Amino acid sequence: MRTPRQRLIGFVASVVAGIFAVSVGVLVASTLVDEPAALGAPAAAPPITRQQVIAATKGRQTIATRIDRIEAKLTTWMEFQIARGVTDEFIAAMQPDREIWLVAVSGEFRPQLARGEVFRWGIVAYDANTGADAFTFAGHESWPDMFARVRDRGK
Amino acid sequence: MTMPDYLVDAGNHILQGLWTYSGSPCTSFVEQVYVYGLDYHRYYEYALVRRYETPPPGQPSYQHYPDGVTSNSGEYVMFQTEYTSDTTWRMWRGASLRAQFSGGGLGYGSCIAQAGLEVSRYGSGVQSGYVSYTMNHDTYWYDQNRQGKGGWAQGTERRYQQYPCYLGQVPPNCLNGQWNSGVQWSANKP
Questions:
Q1: Does residue A154 lie within any of the structural domains?
Q2: What is the mean pLDDT of each run of 10 residues along chain B (190 residues)?
């Protein structure tokens, strides 16, 4: 039979042990998890490379039917929206921090859902982690101004 | 909804969707589709399209967003496009808001919404009129007083729906298209 004093000592000891265990757990976890990157800092290189997305776009020969110029930039959906100056557009499939490769081409661009219309430029966006298509844009100017305003996270 | 893979690999697709157009003349549109073969993909997916005749300054004329991979299981889906009084298009799949676009010369005028089966042309390369359509069945729509109506929708309507193929229904009068050979082709969307 434990005395009240012994029970108090046992309780305090268990609390101290618990705090110690949690502290150790936090320390261990902090060594296993990367520190979050500072806002705007370059992220780690994504699995999908610049060369891969440029090659994939060149391979779409019924869409990019003539390529006079081609460039790629790494960005996020939110940064791209800011570069476009768009604030009131909502796309459920696009998360703000989704990292994407933008591949801009000029020449002749014929998106498959554009009813056969031919554009002078196109942007094909790929998910930088999976390579999946993220979106396709096209326009009639000689080159997309919005692409020029995007900061390339991949450099 | 099926299409031989050799046609997909050659840059063709098959889809069913709801196409709602706008502007004056009716040259802008929004479209949501259930598609196989789009952009060389050998899988079924949803896609959203916004086409501006006069895009906002610095914006693209054409936008296409993949909206999720699906299957050929005959899933029941309902596409709905809503044009609100504040010049905004909203696109719904079931009860889920999938996209919202604003600006760029919107207007409903005498424009209508249509739904149907679309098969891209093949055999002679990419060219003008590349896509062929059988957009010949009616949508269900609501007028400004939220009264549901069938038939072609013109004038002041604001919201369009296209239903999936429920038990006992077959395409092309509902969403779950099928490849029926080239006899369905026509030169353009009507």
A1: no
A2: 76 80 74 87 91 85 93 70 76 91 64 70 44 57 63 52 60 51 37
